[in-house]
Amino acid sequence: MRDFTGKVAVVTGGAEGIGRAIAERAAAAGMKLVLADIDRARLDAALADFAGRGIEAIGLETDVSKADQVDALAALAFERFGNVHLLVNNAGVAHNRPVWETTQADWDWVMGVNLYGVINGLRSFIPTMLKHGEEGHIVNTASMAGLLSQPGLAIYNASKHAVVTVSEGLHHDLTLRQSKLRVSVLCPAWVKTRIHQSERNRPAGPGTSPFDGLDPVASKVGHAIMNAVENGIPVEDVANCVFDAIAAQRFYILTHPAYKDAIKVRMEDILEDRPPTLRAAL
Ligand SMILES: NC(=O)c1ccc[n+]([C@@H]2O[C@H](COP(=O)([O-])OP(=O)(O)OC[C@H]3O[C@@H](n4cnc5c(N)ncnc54)[C@H](O)[C@@H]3O)[C@@H](O)[C@H]2O)c1
């Protein structure tokens, strides 16, 4: 898809961070917006801000881990605008804790948002997008943690690896059908957002606070992650990468090319029968 003017973009987790920047970039390209977010106050503020600038934007408070809420989002988008041309399954949360200390509730929350959120988006939107037969693009936000296995981030790694493989399979399924829908998977490394404060969005209320009761190794890893996020690239750079990739029909969106070496090392670890190499940054 190269011409975005007058087309419709849906962005989950669109009230803040990378999602908000993608929505801004979509609006700058002349798109109409449908934003979904669990944070009602920030969503309303974003919608008011877009409206104040004459940008057509609607939104729905949505917990993407809930299939019925994502169905309602799709119904709203198709009813209001007729079709959706860009679906960005972006909402996500992170949790830092060694795997043996993660609770069932932690797994349910992070997998619910990061994996089921994406799956719900695909199931709720793709059938109608296909029926329309127009050009369209789906972007699923994974992470560099979908291509590498970082310490301390067991659930996050698992959820993001799953998003990468779901996206790869979707690419094949669409290509085999010669569909006009394309898919990309967004795999950023560190981006300056509030992802390290994800507990704020936990519907059941914060579980353990991010650094509560961590052993010295986990605490060191947690601080390294927080520091890396706080020194990450700006969200606008990620949004620009996304739109460049859509126009170029590029599947993998790697916002941090320096990490390609680490991906290569991981693949070589597998092929050469070595244990996983730990990237020096952590
Ligand atoms: N920031 C990074 O370094 C980084 C790196 C790689 C991937 N990512 C991914 O980018 C995506 C966006 O994260 P971000 O960095 O902008 O974080 P962020 O915390 O700034 O923004 C996340 C947005 O998602 C919303 N959200 C959270 N739970 C939700 C739910 N259940 N339903 C709907 N909305 C929900 C939040 O309210 C917020 O607006 C996530 O999928 C994240 O995993 C981030």
Biggest sheet details: 7 strands, parallel
Mean pLDDT: 95
Cα gyration radius (Å)? 18 Å
Silhouette: globular
Distinct ligands: nicotinamide-adenine-dinucleotide
Low-confidence stretches: none
Q: Tell me the name of the CATH homologous superfamily.
A: NAD(P)-binding Rossmann-like Domain
Order of helices and strands: EHEHEHEHEHEHHEH
CATH class (first level) name: Alpha Beta
Count of individual domains: 1
β-strand percent reads 5-15%
Q: Helical region count? A: 8
Structural class: alpha/beta
Q: Can you give the helix content as a percent range? A: 40-55%
Q: Major sheet: order of its strands?
A: 3-2-1-4-5-6-7
- First-residue to last-residue Cα separation: 38 Å
Q: What fold name stands as the CATH topology?
A: Rossmann fold
Number of strands: 7
Secondary-structure arrangement, i.e. CATH architecture: 3-Layer(aba) Sandwich
